[in-house]
Amino acid sequence: MPTYVAFLRAINLGANRKFPKGDIVRAVEGVGFTDVETHINTGNVRFTTTLRSRAKIEKALEDAFAADRGFDVPTMVFTIDELAAIARDAVVLTAGRRGLERHYVYLLKEAPQADTIAEIEGLTTDAGEMVVRGRVAHALLGPGYQAGTVDPLRAAKLLGVATNRNANVITTLAEKWC
Length: 178
What we know:
Blueprint: E1 3-8, H1 21-30, E2 34-38, E3 44-48, H2 54-69, E4 75-79, H3 80-95, E5 102-108, H4 114-121, E6 128-133, E7 136-141, H5 156-159, E8 162-166, H6 167-177
Antiparallel strand pairs: 1-3, 1-4, 2-3, 5-7, 5-8, 6-7
């Protein structure tokens, strides 16, 4: 049975969007998915399912999460092979840049069109640069990056529905689940 990893967006932020790991596991198992496991309380969940359509998997999860929580939880799903490739890209992109302060990996619901990719990758400033690979965008932030700055390259509006993780979280998940 195929194994997938889902990345949940905007949970456990503030008082009104709480979604503890145990509740996530229960909701995922409630739609019939098996071998459910979470990693840290930021919305990373691995599971198996007989479903093959990413769109159907995402919809099943988003419907279950909304029913359980009472608010929408955008969810981006990748196969474990895709996660392994994302982690490999993160390692290569990190290794190739001197002075890298932060590396965030944006996991996208949909891959951007070619003209949007060009616009995203054209956002290079002294804060850093963006690199797009399919449904993933890497924010490579250098010495010009101000810690705590949300979206320093102003890419979020171009990425569409997405969530992000530190590159270290991505590589840890790949080591753990792939």
